[in-house]
Design brief:
By secondary structure, the chain is an alpha/beta fold. Helices cover 33% and strands 13% of the residues. It has a four-stranded mixed β-sheet with strand order 1-3-2-4. A two-stranded parallel sheet has the order 5-6. The N terminus is likely disordered.
Length: 175
């Protein structure tokens, strides 16, 4: 247990150092198209030292977002935070406090209950109507081969998903 906490501490310290160089707090300055396309906007809240909106590099991960927000607060429940997960533009990352239930829910499920196509595992995708293990696997394969889904409509590129299925799950998924 001590070894695990030590490893987590090192990961956060590395993220703080990396995040200090790669993240900036959101300030009310105009954002150019070039800046917007080369950046991610992530709202970090909950048990962090400096909650807020942060601009991160496109390849950033949760560790970078937490580091940009000043690291975990003393009462953070880090057990449910996947520091290695990539973050997506427009995401709200809520770090729970000890004793709180994470608002993020299971892996790949957003706080509003929708399944995030960019982070969901097979089990989360399998909860969608008409999506079984085979189609869930193809969604993950498409994501691994092509990168993150830019929109829900990208599901039409996945073998086995047509317009009718897309319409039946559109309101249940997000990117």
């Amino acid at each position: 247990m001590i070894l695990a906490l030590g490893g987590l501490s090192i990961a956060v310290i590395v993220g703080v150092v990396r995040g200090a160089a790669s993240a900036q707090s959101m300030t009310p300055a105009p954002v150019t198209v070039a800046t917007a396309s080369a950046s991610l906007y992530v709202h970090v809240s909950g048990a962090v030292n400096a909650p807020g909106l942060y601009v991160l590099h496109p390849d950033s991960r949760v560790v970078d977002a937490v580091a940009a927000a000043g690291g975990f607060a003393e009462d953070a429940d880090t057990s449910g935070v996947n520091l290695a997960r990539p973050v997506s533009d427009g995401e709200q990352l809520i770090v729970p406090r000890v004793g709180e239930v994470s608002a993020a829910g299971p892996a790949g499920v957003a706080a509003d209950g929708r399944v995030n196509l960019n982070t969901a595992d097979e089990a989360a995708l399998d909860t969608l109507p008409g999506v079984g293990p085979a189609i869930a696997g193809r969604i993950i394969e498409w994501r691994e081969a092509n990168g993150r889904f830019a929109s829900v409509d990208d599901l039409l590129s996945v073998s086995g998903i047509g317009p009718k299925m897309l319409e039946s799950i559109r309101d249940l998924v997000t990117v």
